[in-house]
Every structure is written in C-alpha cells, then in structure tokens.
Amino acid sequence: MKARYIKTGLNLAGLGLILLFLVSCNHDNNDTGYAYMPDMAYSYAYETYGSSPNFSDSITMLTPVPGTVPREMIPYQYTKSFEEQQRAGRELVNPFKATTENLTRGQEQYTIYCAMCHGDQGKSDGYLVKNKLFPVQPIALSGDYVKNKPDGEIFHVITLGSLSGLMGAHGSQISQDDRWKIILYVKNGFKN
Q1: Among 33, 41, 81, 124, whose Cα sits 20 to 30 Å from the Cα of 112?
Q2: Phi-psi region of 135 (alpha: psi -120 to 50; beta: other; left: phi over 0)
C-alpha cells in the first residue's frame, strides 16, 4: 500500500511538472515573460555629460583607464621628431596600390583636407594662400621634393603635423586608409 502512495505521488508530481511546463510556454510574441533579475534588464540611463549618483564626483562620462586602447585601434608608434619622421619613412609602407578607385578616393580627401592650403594641383596656391589668410606659403606637393620622399614620411607629417608647426596634425580627422590614398593621389594623380 505504501508503494501505491509513492507511485501516485510520483505520478501527480510528474503531471504537475508537465502542467507547469505547458503553462510556462507563452506564444504571445509581445510579452517577454518574467524578469528574474530585473536590475540587469532595467538599468538606469544617465545623460553622457549629466550627473550621476553612482560616483562621488557625480560625473557620468568617465575617462578611460590610463593605457587602454579602443577596439580595432592601433596607436601610432612614432613621435613628432625628425628622427622619428625618418624612421617612419623607412618602416611604413603604403598598403594601397595606385588604382583608379584609390586615386579617386585620394583626390576626394585631398580636396576636402589639403587643397585649401596646397591648392588643387599641389602648387601651394590654395584659397588660404591666395587670400593671404595663411602666414607662409606651404610646400608645393607637385614638386620633386615631395615626390621623392618616402610614403611613410608623408604619412607621418599628415598624422602628426609638420615639425615647423605650420601644418597641423590631421591624424584625428582623416582615417588611416584615406591618408594613404591621399599620398597615392599626391604622388600619382596631379595633372600638370
């Protein structure tokens, strides 16, 4: 008799589990079900530059930990000095070939970032120079001086700016790929 009660109890427990399983299946796609840890599902959002009660100084947007690097970003390994510029010229190689597509992209980026000072054909006759809005005439990019420079040196100057300080750093404005394509355009694309 005792075995019969155990068997009945197990059958009822199994039936209860089956019913619980069937009841837990909700076919309504608009309902996400129960949140067992709502603190993870419903976090509080704070404005980027707003205040936050989570930190003692109430700042929401914290600076990254020193030494951290954003994903897919390789820091530029050279500093702004003559020796480092020459080292960049020896070590850095343009990964792009002078295809029509790359030259076209280089020309587009050159027109946006470089032509105002260096001119449309790289002859140091850009808008800022013609209107005397720039203190000195920049280097002519269409001449032999730049054509004979290694691509890595030009990349270094575009990235960190010139050593004289007359040309500012454009590394934060122009993507790495576009800097290389501008170099291709400067060396291969000007029409004389």
Answers
A1: 81
A2: alpha
CA atoms within 13 A on the CB side of 119: 18
What residue type is 70 in one-letter code? P
Q: Rounded CA gap, 59 and 52, in Å?
A: 6
- How far, in Å, CA of 149 to CA of 85, rounded? 11
Q: At what angle do helices 151-160 and 176-188 cross, to 10 degrees?
A: 130
- What are the tens digits of pLDDT across the range 53-98? 888 888 888 788 888 887 777 788 999 999 999 999 999 999 999 9
Q: How far apart are CA 92 and CA 161, in angstroms?
A: 16
Q: How far apart are CA 33 and CA 82, in angstroms?
A: 64
- The two tokens of residue 141 are 């990019």
- Residue with token string 């120079």: 129
Rounded Cα distance, 6 and 60, in Å: 60
Burial label for 172, CB within 10 Å (0-12, 13-18, 19+), is: exposed
**Model pTM score:** 0.65
